[in-house]
Write a sequence for this structure.
């Protein structure tokens, strides 16, 4: 240990686990510090970087994907190395990272779904939105999803932007999706789809919905799709009315919903029905597949924290449906060696600094960003300030980390370790090979890209292009 940490003679060595927006915004923020000499190694489970920009953002929202340019610049920076196809906890372990790096930043996102915990939830053709989104976006984990779109009605549970995404994809005429980077298998299945109606169930009222205004407006602009809302669902109780006065988004949403409720004489081939104050209490099967849902009417009650929450009224109805997608939020899963807060499903942290849950003691040199830090909310851009805040905490720690030894923190060690283990890691140049392949395939079809959706196939293309 000689010299000042993060000075040219003693570079700060950082590992980032996860190459999604949160991790790459953090890297960007670190790279912008001219006073810090550092190297950043970004590890990612898949050969493809970009996380939700590739796997989450809906294919008909290409403009949101423009942010990829910023991340591309980060990955191309000579101080950054990309290690794709490397699974944390399997190919590389916590104890090894502690030896190889001064700081570890977890940017692992929220990769699991939340459950409704109602009977019938696991019937075939009842899926979490995370799987359905992964399926149409060509995520390798979900390419085999056997969604049956032969029923006439689908029900989407939840009132967030993911619910809006899956509803739109189910209702959009496939020809409009054919010009996007939607996975080929999903486009083919959607071309065969017989779904004519998508019912969206919000458990609370329209004033509490968490979708944002452009997303709810967009539904009304889909060609060949009517949007229906029962005006009675938009009558607000006094508490909701008071909430609305304080919430510009909710106010703007309600204006649009009232417009939908006033639309008459609609007869488009497809229909979206937005329902509020309604929760499924059971999914009913017939011959091993979904036939219907029992839905309970809710009312709003004030909870102990003064928030309005939904409460069943006991009033039940049956909605026939062949597909159910629950879009009720994502969940971070615990990872090897890192304290986890099971109550919030996040990595246990205070302002991005990992801490032990019982003692509150700081885990020196370990940090978290993104959904694994704050829970699964926020747009991609919200990660920028959030990641910058964690980076500030990382840099504030440098005087404390100054005492760490540098033995073994040689950048070539991790490459050797992975090679020894037979891990065929994917570099930034390798990713460019695959990226160019997908872009070229897209150009040939007049699409932004055609995604390769299986890891073996990705690796074959990369190996051929090395
Ligand atoms: P979200 O915005 O938190 O919405 C989750 C929804 O699920 C809420 O309406 C919630 O209702 C409902 N819910 C939770 N538990 C439920 C249950 N047991 N039964 C019925 N409903 C239940 O989450 P998200 O839609 O997964 O989106 C995650 C984040 O990504 C959000 O910040 C979103 O804005 C962002 N995103 C943005 C875009 C975009 O910009 N276009 C696209 C996709 C996602 P309560 O409010 O009653 O809890």
């Amino acid at each position: 240990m000689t010299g000042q940490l993060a000075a040219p003679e003693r570079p700060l060595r950082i590992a980032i686990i996860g190459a999604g927006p949160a991790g790459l915004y953090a890297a960007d923020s670190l790279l912008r510090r001219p006073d810090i000499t550092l190297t950043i190694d970004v590890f990612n489970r898949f050969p493809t970087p970009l996380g939700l920009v590739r796997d989450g953002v809906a294919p008909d929202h290409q403009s949101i994907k423009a942010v990829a340019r910023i991340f591309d610049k980060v990955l191309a920076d000579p101080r950054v190395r990309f290690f794709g196809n490397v699974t944390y906890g399997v190919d590389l372990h916590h104890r090894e990272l502690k030896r190889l790096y001064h700081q570890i930043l977890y940017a692992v996102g929220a990769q699991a779904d939340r459950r409704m915990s109602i009977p019938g939830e696991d019937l075939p053709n009842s899926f979490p939105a995370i799987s359905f989104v992964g399926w149409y976006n060509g995520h390798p984990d979900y390419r085999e999803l056997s969604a049956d779109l032969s029923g006439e009605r689908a029900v989407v549970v939840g009132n967030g932007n993911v619910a809006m995404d899956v509803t739109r994809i189910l209702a959009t005429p496939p020809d409009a999706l054919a010009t996007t980077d939607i996975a080929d298998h999903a486009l083919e299945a959607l071309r065969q789809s017989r779904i004519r109606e998508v019912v969206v169930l919000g458990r609370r009222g329209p004033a509490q919905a968490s979708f944002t205004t452009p997303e709810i407006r967009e539904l009304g602009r889909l060609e060949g799709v009517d949007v229906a809302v029962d005006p009675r669902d938009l009558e607000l109780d006094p508490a909701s009315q008071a909430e609305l006065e304080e919430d510009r988004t909710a106010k703007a949403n309600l204006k649009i919903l009232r417009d939908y409720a006033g639309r008459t004489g609609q007869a488009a081939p497809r229909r979206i029905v937005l329902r509020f104050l309604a929760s499924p209490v059971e999914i009913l099967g017939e011959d091993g597949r979904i036939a219907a849902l029992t839905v309970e009417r809710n009312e709003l009650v004030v909870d102990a924290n003064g928030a309005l929450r939904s409460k069943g009224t006991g009033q039940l109805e049956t909605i026939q449906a062949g597909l159910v997608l629950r879009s009720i939020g994502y969940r971070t899963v615990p990872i090897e060696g890192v304290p986890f807060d099971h109550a919030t499903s996040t990595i246990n942290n205070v302002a991005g600094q990992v801490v032990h849950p019982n003692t509150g003691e700081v885990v020196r040199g370990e940090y978290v960003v993104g959904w694994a830090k704050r829970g699964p909310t926020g747009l991609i851009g919200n990660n920028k300030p959030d990641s910058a805040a964690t980076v500030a905490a990382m840099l504030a720690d440098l005087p404390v980390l100054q005492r760490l030894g540098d033995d073994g923190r040689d950048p070539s060690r991790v490459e050797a370790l992975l090679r020894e283990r037979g891990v065929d890691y994917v570099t930034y140049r390798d990713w460019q090979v695959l990226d160019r392949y997908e872009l070229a395939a897209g150009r040939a079809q007049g699409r932004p890209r055609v995604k390769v959706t299986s890891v073996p196939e990705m690796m074959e293309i990369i190996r051929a292009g090395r």
User: Anything to note?
Assistant: The domain at 12-111+332-426 is CATH 3.40.50.720 (Rossmann fold). The chain has a mean pLDDT of 96. The chain is about 35% helix and 20% strand.
